[in-house]
Amino acid sequence: MRHGHPWIYRSDVLEAPSAAGAAVVVDERDRIIGIALYSPASTIALRMLTHEEVVLDEAFWHQRISRALALRSALAPDATAYRLVHAEADALPSLIVDRYGEHLVVQLLSAGLETFRLAIVGALVDLVRPAGILARNDAPVRQYEQLPRTTELLHGAVPALLEVRESEVRYLVEPWTGQKTGAFLDQRENRIRAGTLARGRALDAFAYHGSFALHLARSAEAVVAVDSSTEALARARRNLALNGRTARLEEGNVFDFLREEEAAGRTYDIVVLDPPAFAKRRDHLEQALRGYKEVNLRALRLLAPGGHLLTFSCSYHVGHADFRAMLGDAAADAGRPVRWIESRHAALDHPEIVQIPETSYLKGAVLQVSD
User: Are 52 and 35 in contact (CB under 8 A)?
Assistant: First the structure.
């Protein structure tokens, strides 16, 4: 905490408040450390907000949210859907705010933060003037806070289906029922990058709603998108039609698909691997790395000479060094020279804080086979 990490665990708390909310944090000598959000049930008991003794009134939330909005304004994202508040990385622990055009989707992910719901919503209404604010408080993490998992309207109106823009691509979002807050906004800049590399035959593996496929289809001659979800591919089909693009949509297991494509002798000029988190817990790391290696090995074998692989892991427990070592092993087993073109991360509206490694969960790479 003294080095800048905002979490204090329950095992380090000697005397706890009686209820969730704001807590004045003092050390064993009764010296004031600052103000934190307190969660009675969570392993993370305290989330530091400030090292000054201040009142968490409406003015405080207004000022803190204003600072996060100013960062996004400076970034000027070429999109109508992006993150406005990224929790700990914006000094607003456990608060997520995503923008989808004129609407906001928020997540209040701790019991301490929940007690300030009205002040936070009031600040967002005043600063952003949204048509509606939806709370996607259905995230599993809320159960560890002993909070109900709900989806509820907090302000105005939010429709079941929204259309948003990402560079020159448009796509549909279901804010009430879609993954996370409706879309995977952290991959926005990586999807745009994939579009700049697209050519020839392209493959979007773990395609979900076809977000990478939409960008690939702008330049590639043929696109294949693979996912195990019938519902997700139906949305991908609608998104492709919205943009006047086409792709071959394949429902099935990505691992099986890659093996079958290799056996059939098919090749691709660009492959995108954006799998779900294989390691949701630390004790899943070894198994996850085997899965990541397998899928990357198969993808490298499918690439035509000079072809590109854009590969990602959103598993926090898979560190950057683990990820790079895994790719090295996959390249060695593929028996092909592979260039590391560049590292990729979450979009800049999902900032990373050096002292908070949890903010650096998404890692990726652009690779190129050079044979």
Answer: yes
Question: Which residues fall within 8 angstroms of residue 306, CB to CB, at 6 or more apart?
Answer: 269, 368, 369, 370
Architecture of the domain delimited by 58-162:
2-Layer Sandwich (3.30)
CATH fold of 7-50 reads: 2.30.130
CATH 2.30.130.10 domain span(s) along the chain: 7-50
What pLDDT, in 10s, does the model give residues 5-61? 999 999 999 999 999 999 999 999 999 999 999 999 999 999 999 999 899 999 999
Report the C-alpha gap between 283 and 360 in whole angstroms. Answer: 19
| E strand map for 200-302 | 201-205, 222-227, 248-251, 268-273
Residue 358 is a catalytic residue? no
* pLDDT tens-digit series, residues 312-352: 999 888 999 999 999 999 999 999 999 999 999 999 999 99
Residue with tokens 């803190």: 64
Where the chain has pLDDT below 50, the residues are none
Marked catalytic residue, from 154, 314, 347, 365? 314
Is the pTM for the entire model greater than 0.90? Answer: yes
277-284 contacts, C-beta under 8 A, 24 or more apart? 277/313, 277/314, 277/315, 277/316, 278/313, 278/315, 278/318, 279/315, 279/316, 279/317, 279/318, 280/315, 280/317, 281/317, 282/317, 284/317
Q: What is the pLDDT of residue 38?
A: 98
Q: Tell whether domain 184-369 is in CATH 3.40.50.150.
A: yes
Which segments of the chain belong to CATH 3.40.50.150? 184-369
